[in-house]
Amino acid sequence: MIGKQVGVGEAPLQKQTQCWRVKESKEGKSLRDHPGIQKAAAMIREGRLVAFPTETVYGLGADATSGEAVTSIFQAKGRPSDNPLIVHIAGADQLDELVSEVPSTGKQLIRRFWPGPLTVILRHRGTVAPPVTAGLDTLGVRVPSHPVALALLREAQRPVAAPSANRSGKPSPTQAEHVWYDLSGRIDALLDGGPTGVGVESTVVDVTREVPVLLRPGGVTLDMIRETVGEIRVDPGIRREGRAPRSPGMKYRHYAPRGELWVVGGSGKDQMQKVQALADQARREGRKVGILTTDEHREAYRAEWVFSCGRRSEPETVARGLYGCLRRFDEVGAEWIVAEAFPPTGVFFSVMNRLMKAAEGQVLSSGEERKA
Questions:
Q1: Where is the YrdC-like domain (predicted)?
Q2: Does 166 carry a binding-site annotation?
Q3: Average model confidence (pLDDT) for the chain?
Q4: How do residues 98-150 score in pLDDT, each as one tens digit?
Q5: Is residue 79 annotated as involved in ligand binding?
Q6: Which conformational region is residue 42 in: left (phi greater than 0), alpha (psi within -120 to 50 degrees), or beta?
Q7: Annotation-wise, does 76 bind a ligand?
Q8: How far is residue 80's CA from residue 3's CA, in Å, rounded to a whole number?
């Protein structure tokens, strides 16, 4: 179940949410001059809430130096207050305002992956509002590469705390429509920049230790990090619940559709047979069943709904389509969802992390039976 340690309550439906469609001009005009960007940036400076696209998912932003503004993020999302937030900045030159030092491994990662889908954990100076860090002495920081996000950050001239722009526990939003469905009436504004590109959240790496630690897999893969800094450890919290989260996404049920989700391991025909058998069993029990698969296997399955999240041969398409598919199951009213597992390598490592969070660890190997 989603954690009950919210503490700050939930925001009532009382805001008039404004929405602006923002895209790069073919005439080469600066996005900072777009009326929507200027109005949204002014709202950030006023301590209000603005949802905006990044290259990973849509974020819900507020001035990271204002305790009142940051608290309103937790209220709008219904997010547990012990879950730290990532701070977005427009460039690495702003780090000195926020953190006490950047170790050599952090500098290496920043040079290669910023702007981009990588968050680094650093010791903070205490200049952000306490709710951002959830009492930790460290802070997650990143520079997004999405042009709308960068334009907003530059125009706002504030560090912006921004988790994903969805109700807590639900699949993260990869389109403006997802944000509107979840948060309209709870936030002040939404910048619609079209579908996001990566589709899963940023990779989070703690560089405060002698050997950096992966806290959350994401758009930058483990192999890419190893190529840059050499040795890196994987935090046990990625696979084990119950500890205080050192990074967003390490605690509580996340990314989950309303229907019960099961993940089936294995590969090839054995995996497909088990997926179908589990779906058939649920249908006999009177459930409305959906199957989550890829283009390669979609035509082989039978269920009320069979949705493909991409092509198994192109893992980045699966990451991009995962959350959209989970939301589609909510839209059609699926009560029981059976998903194919993926090999935990490359981008699929991030996909499996999200699926396992959504399924609360409900995974079956190809030869295992589900107990009634």
A1: 34-220
A2: no
A3: 91
A4: 999 999 999 999 999 999 999 999 999 999 999 999 999 999 999 999 999 99
A5: yes
A6: alpha
A7: no
A8: 6
The residue with tokens 């088990």 is 274
- pLDDT of residue 248 exceeding 60: no
Q: Is 104 annotated as a binding residue?
A: no
Judge whether 239 is annotated as a binding position.
Answer: no
- Does 92 show up as a binding residue in the annotation? no
Nearest to 358 by CA among 333, 327, 313: 327
Map residue 247 onto helix, strand or coil: coil
DSSP-assigned letters across all residues of 286-315? T--EEEEE-TTTGGG--SSEEEE-SBTTBH
Biggest CA–CA distance in the chain, Å, is 61
Among the listed residues 151, 142, 176, 148, the one whose alpha carbon sits nearest the alpha carbon of residue 248: 142
Residue 255 annotated as lining a ligand binding site: yes
The reply to whether 83 sits in an annotated binding site is: yes
Phi, psi of 205 (to 5 degrees): -125, 125
What is the token pair recorded at 193?
A: 């920049």
pLDDT at position 329:
98
- For 292, residues 6+ apart whose C-beta sits below 8 A from its C-beta are 307, 309, 325, 326, 329, 337, 338, 339, 340
pLDDT interval class at 29 (50, 70, 90):
confident
Residues in contact with 269: Cβ distance below 8 Å, sequence separation at least 6, in sequence order? none
Q: What is the DSSP letter of 39?
A: H
Q: What are the tens digits of pLDDT across the range 61-81?
A: 999 999 999 999 999 999 998
Cβ partners under 8 Å of residue 25, min gap 6: 31
Helix residue spans in 160-314 (DSSP H)? 176-183, 222-229, 268-284
Tell me whether residue 162 is annotated as binding.
Answer: yes
Query: Does 154 carry a binding-site annotation?
Result: no
Instruction: Count other Cβ atoms within 10 Å, centred on residue 4.
Output: 8
Model-level pTM? 0.91
Confidence of residue 2 (pLDDT cuts 50, 70, 90): very low
Domains of the chain, start order: 18-238 (3.90.870.10), 260-364 (3.40.50.11030)
C-alpha 94/C-alpha 90 separation (Å) is: 7
Residue 56 is labelled as binding a ligand: yes
